[in-house]
Amino acid sequence: LLSGTDQFSVMLSDVNAAIATRIDAVQEQAEEKAPEVQPTRILNSAKPKSSRRLYMSIAASIMLLATIGFFVLGSSPTPQTIAEEYFQVFELGQTRAATSTSEGAYDQAKVLYQNKKFAEAAPLFDQVNSIKALYSAANCYYLLGKYDLASSRFRAVIDRGDGYAEDAEFGLAMTYLMQDKVEQADELLSNISQDNRHNYSLMAKDALEEIEHL
User: Fold this and answer.
1) Contact 139, 171 (CB under 8 A)
2) How many helices and strands in the chain, by DSSP H and E?
3) Tens digit of pLDDT for each residue in 23-82?
4) Where does residue 140 rank: exposed (0-12), middle (13-18), buried (19+ CB within 10 A)?
5) Minimal CA–CA distance to 21: which of 59, 57, 62?
6) Is residue 157 within 8 Å of 168, Cβ to Cβ?
């Protein structure tokens, strides 16, 4: 498969050929329509009309080229667009009555998270000693664009090795993409894709296919 840049190069060659063909056709039409017995009229009328059509033809071709270029280059993937496509936003369940100070902070953070107040929720999640709170904090920092903080939380979840470890692995790969760390993302996604029991195996394979075209 061709990358977006290669596709654009091919289209550019095709459009250049089309422009040349169009110019030849316009010139041939002008020559066919020009009266043979009135050279003066050929100079004064047929030639300006031919030039005007020629310029219009070139302008139309340039517009077509610009449109194709914008579409092809604009649709080329970037590490960030791949991450935006595949990142799975964590959905928290309903809150319940708190039975401790720690649970109170967690429940408060959940409400803030559900209302997309991630900047307020993140530090509250950090106060709670649970794998779910840690993973929730990682999601908050990711959605806030604080990728270093998100990365450290995702890695901490992975190190714990339970609960949300697989979610955190995929989240960390997406964080790497947002940071333009494509090689690290590619390596992590490759490991995930090779484990058929991994919850994100198929999604990792799809993401890797897009990374190949970067």
Assistant:
1) yes
2) 11, 0
3) 676 667 666 665 555 554 544 444 555 566 666 667 676 767 666 655 545 568 999 999
4) buried
5) 57
6) yes
